[in-house]
Amino acid sequence: MxxxxxxxxxxxxxxxxxxxxxxxxxxYWFVRYVINEHWPYYQTEKLGECDDxxxxxxxxxxxxxxNWRQPDVIEADGYLSYLQAGCRKAALGxxxxxxxxxxxxxxxxxxxxxxxxxxxxxMVVIDGIHRNKDNWQKVVSDERTVxxxxxxxxxxxxxxxxxxxQNYIINF
Length: 172
Known about the structure:
The protein has 172 residues and is of the alpha/beta class. It has a single domain, classed as Rossmann fold (3-Layer(aba) Sandwich). It contains six helices and seven strands. It has helices at residues 2-12, 25-35, 53-69, 80-86, 107-115, 133-141, and strands spanning 73-76, 91-92, 98-102, 123-127, 147-150, 154-158, 166-169. A seven-stranded mixed β-sheet has the order 2-1-3-4-6-5-7, covered by helices on one side.
């Protein structure tokens, strides 16, 4: 039954595949070669062998994000094995580069703390954005966020003020 639900979600979002309609070359490249990358990586086959398919899918995305960003420090609520496999040099702790948080009742309070420490190259990943859609909409509409990606299972937020504010819905 869950598989059918996820298939229907995917079908509903099919027009948002592979970066179609994205005008920014940087954002198109990010969607095409980081988010929707399907080539096997050196570590992903062994990662999450005991996880369900959705945890593996999202974890592999987090692996690719860490591999692409190569942060020195990662601040994360979960998926640590995927993140550390993606960037072995990264230490765990308070980060200004790569932050992974859950969409829970404290999200807005935590985001206000994060807004005070972000830099232009900060990337925040919010896990489970559709568990509380209002929280995600508050993050998207906040004037301090610039580029956001709605992947249904998670959201990605960038803060580069040189760019135009944009929210993308991606069929992931």
